[in-house]
Amino acid sequence: MKIDGYTRTCGLIGNPVEHTMSPAIHNTLAEELSEKLVYVPFRVPEDKLGEAVEGAFALNLLGCNVTVPYKSRVIPFLKEIDSLARDIGAVNTLVRVEDGFKGYNTDMPGLYRAMCGDGVRLEGEKALILGAGGVARAVAMLLSVHGASQIVILNRTVEKAERLAEEINTFSGRQLAEAMALTDYGALPRGEKYLAIQATNLGMFPRVEEAVIEDRAFYEKIHTGYDLIFNPSRTKFMSLVEEMGGRAFNGLRMLLYQGIIAYELWTGVKVDEELAGKAYGEMRRAMKPEEQHPEQKPE
Questions:
Q1: 122-167 pLDDT, tens per residue?
Q2: Cβ contacts of residue 33 below 8 Å, gap of 6+?
Q3: CA–CA separation, 118 vs 21, rounded Å?
Q4: Residue 297 appears among annotated catalytic residues
């Protein structure tokens, strides 16, 4: 691509950013669509976040993604925030508006698009969420919005899971979510089959041989498992799901589609599935085992 005065810039704000695969998504899309756009990562120190957002606007950036640890911390520096991002309490995409940026959350729409592509329907589904942090909160809201019939939140600290369940029930206006200690998974009804979403960091480097629950009896209850970790591409959680006859997916397609939705917001261009497949291929090629790093976190 020829870079000149007409080329727009988008980027990633985070810390660290060295192992991001987002440039593989956006630069592939721009090249294939002949858009004059380049995407670069920006490592931002924690005490410079506000300055970074102001600087991005001053430098005429078209938009930015935001990754850990800034998805919630960036909100006070925005001019506007989309209702979904406000409900979730996290922003991962900034879109240029007058006098600043508007914040969106494309992570959960990205997960939903990935699930639809995998033939998973959420309406009427019984779901398990492993973890009760910010990612688990967003997943629970997604399940609520798309009509899940039951959500069971399993967490080491059951009080945290209880707070999240109460919040989701208030949000949904129905008794949808319940909390359970991780060690109490045996109390789940026999014969039930669940969609399970692994929303903790366990399974990432260097703890790639671990899963939040190791007992194979638990995995007999899962018909489909999503691990939101994307590197390594096959986690212990996924292996256990598949060993017990379920389908298992990692978070790479979620990462793909959250990026595509962000790109569509920035450019107004609709990305079709053929082009999405090309971007996915570039992401796969960008995943090198030797690039795993103790600091790496889900985007």
A1: 999 999 999 999 899 999 999 999 999 999 999 999 999 999 999 9
A2: 267, 269, 271, 275
A3: 22
A4: no
